[in-house]
């Protein structure tokens, strides 16, 4: 283990990032003991400055954080926990993460580029589970997988034509369509897009 | 602006995340003035606890951080700057981000799921710029765009067949191939995969 620099209260800041979406789930603090418990158990532990005690995230709520990896910053005075979030809720307010408002106080609606595929697949899953009648996704889903595959194939061909033509707007539009249908088809086959991206990542050196 | 809680030193922690890749570029601190300068200029400013002064990130190195968005956590005592990083370097060590080591002190090699497409496109760009002879990417690139498009089309069809068959490993393998050739073709056409993901994200409510 590295020679971590804890502050005068014996604490080190912890950034908590989601392994799949990349969103910042929380910001918290750890002391030596919280870090050791995290390493021993594989689940995120922090130090509460208000309660002056160690806490295991999600111990009562079930919103546990399985720690995939811990990284340390260049000065060795900040930690990054990369986690898988149980129940998809990290904030005590019930929000999926603690950074749900902008500096203006308004709730953030924007989905960021890096989280787009994973978050869209979440939406697709929920449309199907809810059987939402007025949803394009649910309607297409009910038409069966051959119809979804046919749409995927059509959009792949349209993407190819747009790429050949080389104009940016059609390229963006057609590839978006193709990726959406890819996500729907992956959902039908119970494959998480994260698993595809893991496979792709394993093939190259960053 | 929200009623932010600065600590007894007048500081608030700032998580700095890349807009495109989602990687955590840095962890730093701001005071009221650093935050105001960030909002006024659109470029990240911080407070250095060692130098006891405001600093503009990249002022001398050129490694500026254009701030796309600022988010605030539920307790209003932590900030998230979402930035575009000039020169793709954020750490004073010359690394692309400050969290380049694991808790064991070893340099991190793993590319995380959410950053995979953007990071792979970076690699593809560099292979082409370097004209790296022993690279599959560079060789395929030199065969011309029709050959790349043909490969993209082949891999899309193979993906379709794998999805129809429904076995996870071929699905992951074929879609990885298709996405790789999509990234190469986007690179040839000077489209950033981030632009495609922005288009896709604009189509759904998260």
Automatic annotation (TrEMBL), chains A, B:
Top-rank taxon, per record: Bacteria
GO molecular function terms listed in the Swiss-Prot or TrEMBL record: ATP binding; phosphoribosyl-AMP cyclohydrolase activity; phosphoribosyl-ATP diphosphatase activity
Gene Ontology cellular-component terms listed: cytoplasm
Pathway: Amino-acid biosynthesis; L-histidine biosynthesis; L-histidine from 5-phospho-alpha-D-ribose 1-diphosphate: step 3/9; Amino-acid biosynthesis; L-histidine biosynthesis; L-histidine from 5-phospho-alpha-D-ribose 1-diphosphate: step 2/9
Keyword field contains Nucleotide-binding: yes
Keyword Ligase included in the entry's annotation: no
Subcellular location: Cytoplasm
EC numbers on record: 3.5.4.19, 3.6.1.31
Gene3D superfamilies hit by this protein: MazG-like (1.10.287.1080), Phosphoribosyl-AMP cyclohydrolase (3.10.20.810)
Record keywords: Amino-acid biosynthesis, ATP-binding, Cytoplasm, Histidine biosynthesis, Hydrolase, Multifunctional enzyme, Nucleotide-binding
Listed InterPro entries: His_synth_HisIE, HisE, PRA-CH, PRib-ATP_PPHydrolase-like, PRib_AMP_CycHydrolase_dom, PRib_AMP_CycHydrolase_sf
Pfam annotation, one family: PRA-PH
Region ranges (Phosphoribosyl-AMP cyclohydrolase): 1-116
Recorded family membership: In the C-terminal section; belongs to the PRA-PH family.
NCBIfam families to which the protein is assigned, alphabetical: histidine_hisI, PRK00051.1, PRK02759.1
The name this protein goes by in its record: Histidine biosynthesis bifunctional protein HisIE
